[in-house]
C-alpha cells in the first residue's frame, strides 16, 4: 500500500512556482501582460514519507503559450539505497513532450529502504531539460517513523438509530468520504452482538460487498443491513461499522432498537397432537398456548376446523393477553359426530390475532362406543342366564 | 327336589372320548382333508397375488387370509363356507347315535348326570374344532413364512388369533345346531339332512333370500332416496340372521385393520377422516362386537334348546 | 335275615295322565336274586329306572343301600350296576376300551381300572377277546362284557334287564351260573326276564308286575299257593279208577285235573303222595306212577294273569 504523507510547509506559496532565471527576466518585463514559458511544478515540494513504502510524488509539466516542448527529465540527489522510478501514463518514462497550453502529469515513485535513518532531510532535484533551458525543481524529502493519526475517511450515517422487531432487517445508510488524496479500496467490517448477522451493499444496489473503492475526495453510500438473532430480547443494541483501507480507518457507532414481537405456539395435551374420543361423546383436551416471542400477544382468538357434524368448543373462547414466555392452558371440548366411524380424524386448531397466527392439526382417534360392547355382553349374559336356568330347571337328571 | 352332586361329573371324560373318537374317525379325516386341500389352494393363490402386488404392508400376513386369486375364494371365505360342514359332521349324530347304538342308557347308568352327556358332546366337538383351526392357522402361518420369507408381526398374530377365536364361536353355532337336531330327530341320516338343509339355506341361498324379503318389507321407491337406504338396512338386518353374514363381517373387520365400518358409509362420516390408517385391534373388535356377541349368544341359545329337549327326553332304550 | 339293600314304598310314576307305576312296594335283602316279571308295559323298566334315579318318581320313597336314588342318584349309581336290555357298546372301540371309558365315568382312577379290568374280563371269559373290537363280538359276548363292566365297578347291586334274551342255550346256562355265583358272593341281583324257566332256575323270589303294581312278591311256591293252588304238584298215573273225585278227599289237595286217560295232576299244599297212593289202592286201582314236582313258574304265571284277567 502506498501512503503519501503531505507536509504542508508554512512557506508554501513562495516556492509554488520556480521560474527559470532566463525566463524570469522576460517575465519581469512582461509580467503584467503575458505569462509565457515551461514550468515543472508539484503541489507539495517538501514532504515526509515512511521508510519501506513506495510513495508517489505528483509532478506537473506546464507549457504556456510555447510551441510543443520536449523535455528530458533527470532526477538527482536520491540517497543511496533508495529506489525510485519516474512514471508517466503508467509507464517508466524519462522524457515528455508538452503541447502548448497544456500540462503533462508525471509521478515520481520513491521507495526508501526499511532501515533508512529518519532524521535527515534529503534534497532531491528534478530537472527538465529542453533545447533552450533547464528547469529545476528541488524537493525536500524527510523520513518520518511515527504513524500519524490522520483520518482521511469520514463516515456519516444517514440515520444512526433504527427501530424494528427481532424479525426486521435494519438498514443503515452510511456516507463514506475518502478525504485522502489518493483513490483507494476500503474494507468494510461490522461489529455486532453475538448472533446478529450483517451484510453490506453499495448504495441501493443488491449485490453484497465486502469492500468498495472510493476515489480520492469522493463519497460513496454504503448500506449495512443488520438482522438480529431470532428471539433476541427487546432492547437497544449497538452496531459498529469500520471502514478501513489505504492506511486509514474510521468507525461509526449505530444503534438498533429491537422492539418485542409475540410469537405463539400450540402445544397439545401431554405435548402430543393426538387424542381419543368416543363417537357422540364429548371429550376434553387441554391445550397449551405458549408465547415464545418477545412481546405480549393480545386478543388471541381460538378457532377450529372440525370434520362435518362435529362440535368443537373452546374454553376460554379467546385469550386476552399472554406475556412472553408465558403458557396459558385452554380446553378444547370436542364432540365427534354421532355417526363418526371408528378411526382417525383430523381437527384443525387455529389461534390467531392481528399479528400472529398458528395452526395445528389434531389427530383424534374416534373409538366405538362401548355401549354396544356392553349390550353385546348383555346378550351373551342373557343367553348364559337362560342356559343356567335350563340347567337349574332340567339339570341333574 | 334338590339332587346332590355336580351335574358336570364326567363331562371331561365324555368330552375327551368324543374328541378322540372324532380325531380317529374316517368321517373327520375326509372332511379335514377337504378343508386342508382347499386351504392350501387358497393360500397358494393369495401368496401369488401378494408377491405380485404388495410391496410394503404392516399387515401382510392378514392378507394371506383374505386375499383371493380367481377363481378360488380366499381362505377366510373358504372357512366360512366349509366350517359348518365340519361342525355338522361332528354333531349330527351326537345324541341319536348314542340311542341307536343303545349305549345311552348304559352310559347314563354310570354315576353321572345326564347333563354331562350333552355338555361333554359339545365340548368334545369344540375341542376337535379348536385343534383343527389351530392346526390350520399354524399351517397358514408356516406357509406364509415359507413363501413370503418374513415372520408375522405382533399385530398380525393378535388379530389372527382373535379371528381364530371368533371362528371357533362360528363353528360352535353350527355344532350346537347339529347337536340340537340330533336330539330332536331320532334318525342320524334325517338329522344330518336337516342340518345340511339349514346350512344350504343360510350359507348359499340366504344371499338371495335377504334382498327378496327386504324388497317386500321395504320396497324401493326410485324417487325417494331414503327408501333405498331403508331397504338396504332391511336387507342387511335380514342377511345378518345368517351366522355366515355375521362371520363374514367379523372377518372383514378383524383381518383388515383399515376397515372401519360394516354398514353403509356416508360422505359426511368420512369428512376429515384419515383413510387407511389402521385401527387398534381393540377398536376393530369393538366394531364387530355385536356380531361376535350374536354368534356366541346363538351358540348358547341353540345349545340350551338342545339341552332342554334332551333333558326332557325319556331314556328307556 | 341278611341286611336290607333295597326298599321301595309306594313308588308312583306318572307321565301326564298316564300312570306307568301305580304304587310299588318292595324289600330286597342282600344276596337275593329277584326276578322281575310281568308283561311289557307293566312298569318293570320304569321301576328299575326309579330305583337307579335315572327317572324321578312322582311319589313314594326308595332306599338303595341306605341312600335315596332320587336325591343322591350319583351315590346310588356308584354302587348299583345296571345292564340295560340289549346293551350297546361303541363298536369301533375294543372291549377293554369300552370298559376303560365307563370306568372313568364311574370315577375310578386309571390305576384302579387297570387293576380290575383284567380280572373282570377273565371272569366272564373275555380275557383274550377284550383286545378285539366290539363289532366282532357275538350277542352273548356283549352281555358278558356288560357283566364285566359291573364287576369292574365292583357293584354291590346289579340290575339286569333281559340278560338272556337272544342267547343260545349254552350262553344262557353260563350266564345263569355266573349270576348264581355272584349271588353266593353276597351281591344282590334284580333281573327282569320273559324266560320264566330262567327266572325260576336262579331267583329266590319273584315280583309279578301288573298294570303298574307288584301283584305278587315272593317265592314261586308262595305264588303257587297264593293263587289258590298248591305249591306241590303230583302227577298220578293209575288205572281202573277215577281219581278226579276221589283225590278231593285227601287233606291238603287243592285241585285235581284229569290230564288224559288215566293221568291226573293233583295240586296240593303239601306232599300228598302217601294219601294219594292209599286212595288209589283203596279204590282198587292200579298205581303206575306217582310223581311229585314243584309248581312251575310259567304255569303259576299264566294262571295268575288269567285270573287277573278274569277278575277284571
TrEMBL record, chain A:
Pfam families: NPCBM_assoc
The keyword Signal appears for this protein: yes
Start and end residues of each Alpha-galactosidase NEW3 domain: 278-350
Signal peptide: 1-24
UniProt key word Ubl conjugation: no
Keywords: Membrane, Signal, Transmembrane, Transmembrane helix
InterPro entries referenced in this protein's UniProt entry, alphabetically: A-galactase_NEW3, Ig-like_fold
Residue spans crossing the bilayer: 371-392
PANTHER family: ALPHA-GALACTOSIDASE NEW3 DOMAIN-CONTAINING PROTEIN (PTHR39198:SF1), HYPOTHETICAL MEMBRANE PROTEIN, CONSERVED (PTHR39198)
Protein name: Alpha-galactosidase NEW3 domain-containing protein
Organism (species): Aquamicrobium zhengzhouense
UniProtKB/TrEMBL annotation, chain B:
Keywords assigned: Membrane, Transmembrane, Transmembrane helix
Pfam families in the record: ABC2_membrane_2
Domain of life according to the entry: Bacteria
Claim: Transmembrane is one of the keywords in the record: yes
Segments passing through the bilayer: 30-47, 75-95, 116-149, 161-181, 193-217, 287-310
Keyword Transmembrane helix set for record: yes
Protein name, per record: ABC transporter permease
Species per Swiss-Prot/TrEMBL record: Aquamicrobium zhengzhouense
TrEMBL record, chain C:
Annotated InterPro entries: AAA+_ATPase, ABC_transporter-like_ATP-bd, P-loop_NTPase
Annotated ranges, domain ABC transporter: 6-236
Domain of life: Bacteria
GO MF, any single term: ATP binding
Pfam families attached to this UniProt entry: ABC_tran (PF00005)
Entry keywords, A to Z: ATP-binding, Nucleotide-binding, Transport
Record flagged with keyword Nucleotide-binding: yes
Family to which the UniProt record says this protein belongs: Belongs to the ABC transporter superfamily.
Protein name, per record: ABC transporter ATP-binding protein
Species of origin: Aquamicrobium zhengzhouense
Amino acid at each position: 500500500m502506498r501512503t503519501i504523507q503531505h507536509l504542508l510547509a508554512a512557506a508554501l506559496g513562495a516556492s509554488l512556482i520556480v521560474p527559470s532565471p532566463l525566463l524570469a527576466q522576460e517575465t519581469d518585463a512582461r509580467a503584467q501582460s503575458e505569462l509565457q514559458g515551461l514550468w515543472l511544478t508539484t503541489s507539495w515540494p517538501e514532504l515526509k514519507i515512511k521508510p519501506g513504502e513506495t510513495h508517489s510524488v505528483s509532478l506537473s509539466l506546464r507549457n504556456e503559450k510555447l510551441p510543443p516542448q520536449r523535455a528530458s527529465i533527470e532526477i538527482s540527489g536520491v540517497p543511496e539505497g533508495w529506489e525510485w522510478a519516474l512514471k508517466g501514463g503508467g509507464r517508466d518514462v524519462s522524457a515528455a513532450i508538452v503541447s502548448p497550453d497544456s500540462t503533462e502529469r508525471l509521478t515520481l515513485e520513491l521507495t526508501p529502504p526499511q532501515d533508512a535513518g529518519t532524521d535527515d532531510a534529503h534534497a532531491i532535484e528534478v530537472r527538465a531539460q529542453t533545447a533552450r533551458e533547464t528547469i529545476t525543481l528541488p524537493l525536500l524529502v524527510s523520513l518520518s517513523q511515527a504513524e500519524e493519526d490522520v483520518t482521511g475517511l469520514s463516515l456519516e450515517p444517514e440515520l444512526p438509530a433504527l427501530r424494528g422487531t427481532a424479525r426486521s432487517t435494519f438498514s443503515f445508510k452510511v456516507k463514506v468520504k475518502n478525504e485522502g488524496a489518493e483513490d483507494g479500496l476500503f474494507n468494510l467490517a461490522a461489529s455486532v452482538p453475538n448472533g446478529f448477522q450483517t451484510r453490506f451493499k453499495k448504495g441501493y444496489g443488491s449485490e453484497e460487498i465486502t469492500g468498495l473503492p472510493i476515489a480520492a475526495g469522493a463519497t460513496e453510500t454504503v448500506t449495512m443491513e443488520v438482522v438480529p438473532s431470532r428471539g433476541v430480547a427487546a432492547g437497544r443494541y449497538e452496531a459498529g461499522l469500520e471502514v478501513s483501507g489505504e492506511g486509514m480507518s474510521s468507525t461509526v457507532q449505530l444503534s438498533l432498537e429491537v422492539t418485542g414481537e409475540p410469537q405463539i405456539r400450540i402445544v397439545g395435551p401431554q405435548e402430543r397432537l393426538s387424542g381419543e374420543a368416543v363417537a357422540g361423546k364429548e371429550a376434553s383436551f387441554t391445550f397449551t398456548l405458549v408465547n415464545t416471542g418477545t412481546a405480549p400477544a393480545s386478543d388471541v382468538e381460538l378457532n377450529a376446523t372440525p370434520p362435518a357434524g362435529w362440535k368443537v368448543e373452546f374454553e376460554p373462547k379467546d385469550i386476552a393477553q399472554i406475556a412472553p414466555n408465558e403458557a396459558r392452558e385452554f380446553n378444547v371440548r370436542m364432540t365427534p359426530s354421532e355417526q363418526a366411524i371408528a378411526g382417525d380424524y383430523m381437527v384443525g386448531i387455529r389461534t390467531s390475532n392481528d399479528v400472529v397466527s398458528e395452526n395445528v392439526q389434531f389427530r383424534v382417534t374416534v373409538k366405538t362406543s362401548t355401549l354396544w360392547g356392553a349390550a353385546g355382553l348383555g346378550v351373551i349374559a342373557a343367553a348364559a342366564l337362560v342356559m343356567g336356568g335350563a340347567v337349574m330347571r332340567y339339570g341333574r337328571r | 327336589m334338590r339332587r346332590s352332586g355336580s351335574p358336570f361329573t364326567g363331562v371331561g371324560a365324555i368330552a375327551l372320548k368324543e374328541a378322540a373318537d372324532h380325531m380317529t374317525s374316517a368321517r373327520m379325516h375326509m372332511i379335514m382333508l377337504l378343508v386342508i386341500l382347499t386351504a392350501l389352494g387358497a393360500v397358494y393363490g393369495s401368496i401369488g397375488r401378494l408377491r405380485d402386488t404388495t410391496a410394503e404392508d404392516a399387515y401382510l400376513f392378514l392378507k394371506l387370509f383374505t386375499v383371493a386369486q380367481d377363481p378360488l375364494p380366499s381362505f377366510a371365505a373358504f372357512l366360512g363356507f366349509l366350517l359348518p360342514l365340519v361342525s355338522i359332521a361332528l354333531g349330527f349324530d351326537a345324541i341319536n347315535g348314542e340311542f341307536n347304538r343303545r349305549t345311552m342308557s348304559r352310559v347314563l347308568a354310570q354315576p353321572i348326570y345326564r347333563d354331562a352327556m350333552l355338555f361333554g358332546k359339545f365340548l368334545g366337538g369344540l375341542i376337535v374344532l379348536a385343534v383343527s383351526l389351530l392346526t390350520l392357522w399354524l399351517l397358514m402361518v408356516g406357509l406364509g413364512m415359507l413363501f413370503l420369507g418374513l415372520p408375522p408381526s405382533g399385530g398380525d398374530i393378535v388379530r389372527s388369533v382373535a379371528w381364530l377365536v371368533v371362528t371357533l364361536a362360528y363353528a360352535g353355532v353350527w355344532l350346537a345346531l347339529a347337536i340340537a337336531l340330533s336330539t330332536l330327530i331320532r334318525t342320524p341320516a334325517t338329522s344330518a339332512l336337516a342340518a345340511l338343509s339349514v346350512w344350504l339355506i343360510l350359507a348359499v341361498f340366504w344371499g338371495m333370500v335377504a334382498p327378496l324379503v327386504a324388497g317386500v318389507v321395504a320396497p324401493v321407491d326410485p324417487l325417494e332416496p331414503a327408501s333405498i337406504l331403508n331397504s338396504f338396512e332391511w336387507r342387511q338386518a335380514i342377511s345378518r340372521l345368517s351366522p355366515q353374514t355375521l362371520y363374514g363381517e367379523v372377518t372383514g373387520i378383524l383381518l383388515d385393520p383399515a376397515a372401519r365400518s360394516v354398514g353403509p358409509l356416508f360422505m359426511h362420516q368420512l369428512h376429515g377422516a384419515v383413510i387407511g390408517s389402521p385401527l387398534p385391534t381393540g377398536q376393530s373388535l369393538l366394531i364387530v362386537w355385536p356380531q361376535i356377541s350374536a354368534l356366541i349368544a346363538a351358540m348358547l341359545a341353540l345349545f340350551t334348546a338342545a339341552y332342554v329337549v334332551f333333558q326332557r327326553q325319556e331314556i328307556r332304550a | 335275615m341278611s341286611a336290607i339293600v333295597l326298599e321301595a314304598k309306594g313308588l308312583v310314576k306318572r307321565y301326564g295322565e298316564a300312570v306307568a307305576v301305580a304304587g310299588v312296594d318292595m324289600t330286597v335283602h342282600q344276596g337275593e336274586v329277584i326276578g322281575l316279571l310281568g308283561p311289557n308295559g307293566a312298569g318293570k323298566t320304569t321301576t328299575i329306572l326309579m330305583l337307579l334315579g335315572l327317572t324321578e318318581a312322582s311319589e313314594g320313597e326308595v332306599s338303595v343301600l341306605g341312600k335315596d336314588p332320587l336325591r343322591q342318584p350319583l351315590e346310588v349309581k356308584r354302587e348299583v350296576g345296571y345292564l340295560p336290555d340289549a346293551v350297546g357298546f361303541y363298536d369301533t372301540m375294543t372291549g377293554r376300551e369300552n370298559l376303560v371309558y365307563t370306568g372313568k365315568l364311574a370315577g375310578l382312577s386309571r390305576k384302579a381300572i387297570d387293576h380290575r379290568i383284567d380280572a373282570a374280563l377273565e371272569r366272564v371269559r373275555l380275557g383274550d377277546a377284550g383286545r378285539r373290537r366290539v363289532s366282532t363280538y357275538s350277542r352273548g359276548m356283549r352281555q358278558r362284557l356288560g357283566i364285566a363292566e359291573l364287576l369292574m365297578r365292583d357293584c354291590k347291586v346289579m340290575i339286569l334287564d333281559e340278560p338272556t334274551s337272544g342267547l343260545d342255550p349254552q350262553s344262557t346256562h353260563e350266564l345263569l351260573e355266573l349270576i348264581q355265583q355272584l349271588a353266593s358272593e353276597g351281591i344282590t341281583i334284580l333281573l327282569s326276564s320273559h324266560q320264566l324257566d330262567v327266572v325260576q332256575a336262579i331267583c329266590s323270589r319273584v315280583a309279578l308286575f301288573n298294570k303298574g303294581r307288584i301283584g305278587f312278591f315272593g317265592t314261586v311256591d308262595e305264588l303257587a299257593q297264593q293263587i289258590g293252588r298248591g305249591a306241590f304238584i303230583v302227577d298220578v298215573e293209575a288205572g281202573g279208577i277215577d281219581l278226579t273225585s276221589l283225590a278231593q278227599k285227601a287233606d291238603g289237595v287243592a285241585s285235581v285235573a284229569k290230564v288224559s286217560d288215566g293221568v291226573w295232576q293233583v295240586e296240593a299244599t303239601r306232599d300228598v303222595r302217601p294219601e294219594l297212593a292209599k286212595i288209589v289202592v283203596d279204590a282198587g286201582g292200579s298205581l303206575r306212577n306217582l310223581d311229585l314236582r314243584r309248581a312251575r313258574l310259567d304255569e303259576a304265571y299264566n294262571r295268575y294273569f288269567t285270573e287277573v284277567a278274569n277278575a277284571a
